[in-house]
Amino acid sequence: MKSILLCTLNAKYIHTSLALRYLKAYCLQDADLKIELKEYTINELLPDVMASIYSFQPDILCFSCYIWNIRSILELCHDYKKVAPQTIIILGGPEVSYDSLALLKENPAIDFIVRGEGEVSLKELLIALDNNQPVNNVRGITCRQGAELNYHPDQPLIEDLDNIPFPYPADLREYKDKIVYYESSRGCPFNCAYCLSSTQRQVRFFSLERVKKDLTILLTQEVREVKFVDRTFNCNENRAREIIKFLADQEAISKFHFELDAALISDQMLEFLKNLPADRFNFEIGVQSTYPAALQAVQRTSSWERLSRNVQQLNSSGNIHLHLDLIAGLPYEGYAEFAQSFNNAYALNPDVLQLGFLKLLKGSRLRDEAQQYGYVFQEQPPYQILANNYISYDQMIKLKQIEELLEKYYNSGDMSRSVAYIINYVYDEDAFAFFEGLAFYWERNQLFAVAHKKERLYSILIDFIRGYHSPHLDVVNDLLKFDFLNKNRTDVLPAGLWSHNPAHIKEEIYACIKDKEFIKKHLPGNLPASPREIKKNLHLEYFHWDPNQVLPDSEEVKIMFVYDPIKKLAVKKIRL
């Protein structure tokens, strides 16, 4: 019996490969095969990865390939074949499915490529290889047979997804601090020109009975997050509602992440969603653009008016974490048009606003139409665009800088009050102009490509306000102090921020600690009992401007921050 190793290189340690687990589970179903699974990350040194793989001594080595790992995997395959020429190497995944003949021709270390949905093809291939039988009748593969390269007919899609076994073990302790991926459907009903899901418009569903059975197993485990990979989870709203209700009714510590089309959400669904338990569900919503010509060019048919209305409704409930996506570089959308899309999405006040960049993926319609729009893009993965007829490379560089600052100053949530004030009152609600101006400041002061501690980010922002918007300096200083103290148990403010605390501040804190009614009313039960230990988890700060007001007022306030002794985050803010 041949030893088989399924492996991949994940983008991060917290990620897990759902594809490998489906493949292993399906291949072992009713088949006598010896299969092991091993995951690495793209951050590991390739010689270390190769040595680890070699320790398994696989007869058949299989890799799951994506845009983030294909270059490393090809390098591994070239080197591995030199030290183990007898090993059969098989690649699969979206990054090798659309030019498989060319890939085999250019990479002699590769023996087989499994195209598209891989469960059936890989199982048939492994059984044939394990029994030293011909592979002529295996569909969905491209293979090297001597000097010839053969492209076999496609494998039909699996009609009944319930035939695929549950991919995870009953004991998920090893996944406690990782993201567990799960799918309740395959395919997408839409035909977006930049997406590979558009090549398979047929949507197939696991049965609800099967989904609930699977989720019951996951709910009993202390996994960090269950991330559904369904391309449009709510394409069947009744089904989506039943799954969400099932999850909401269970006792669990896990969070659940879905990708939805907000424009499809009905009023009845909105009414249902507003009653979900807080801090349990994350919704990722693809806005991509609000420029009509760009949306039409890529066949995005969602109504911006309905999408924005529904997102506002979701946000008003305050119980669902909202993540909105934008894509820079779509056809017809220039820099100014993208700035408007950015502002439109920002105005919806999402928890996360992701600025992504168009990638011309192999097999996508937009890659075939690249010349029509004048696309210049990376020859190697991830095939990100560099410019087109509507946006220059200079402008794309600026957008990359804005993306970096968006992550640091908005998506982190570390300076929410400060950034909201600056955008609303310094930049007249023009969020893009703020990040553009801040990016100019960073570039001018050579702050990019430098690792900054979080404290330094506060200092940079106050220096930016001091240099360019000094009339707002006092207000922003107080807001930044509040944001910083809310996230950090410390008495030391970042450089550039100043305190208004009087000299007798310690006496005020100890007066509160000695007040039994104050302790009983305000302090959580998990704080240590002694006054000295309590003091470590309290911080009193004076503010000239009330950070809890949307508009600044002149009333001086003092706020006691009460910290969780373990997480060191403020769990209460008490106005004294």
UniProtKB/TrEMBL annotation:
Gene Ontology MF terms in the entry:
4 iron, 4 sulfur cluster binding; catalytic activity; cobalamin binding; metal ion binding
Q: Which InterPro entries match?
A: BchE-like, Cobalamin-bd, DUF4080, Elp3/MiaA/NifB-like_rSAM, Methyltransferase_Class_B, rSAM, rSAM_horseshoe, rSAM_sf
Q: Which cofactor does it need?
A: [4Fe-4S] cluster
Protein's recorded name: Elongator protein 3/MiaB/NifB
An annotated GO cellular component = cytosol
Q: Which PANTHER family match?
A: ANAEROBIC MAGNESIUM-PROTOPORPHYRIN IX MONOMETHYL ESTER CYCLASE-RELATED, SLR0320 PROTEIN
Segments forming domain Radical SAM core: 174-403
Instruction: Give the species this sequence originates from.
Output: Syntrophomonas zehnderi OL-4
List the taxonomic lineage: Bacteria, Bacillati, Bacillota, Clostridia, Eubacteriales
Q: One Pfam family, short name please? A: Radical_SAM
Q: Which domain of life is it from?
A: Bacteria
Every copy of the B12-binding domain together lies at 2-136
Arranged from A to Z, the UniProt key words for this protein are: Iron, Iron-sulfur, Metal-binding, S-adenosyl-L-methionine
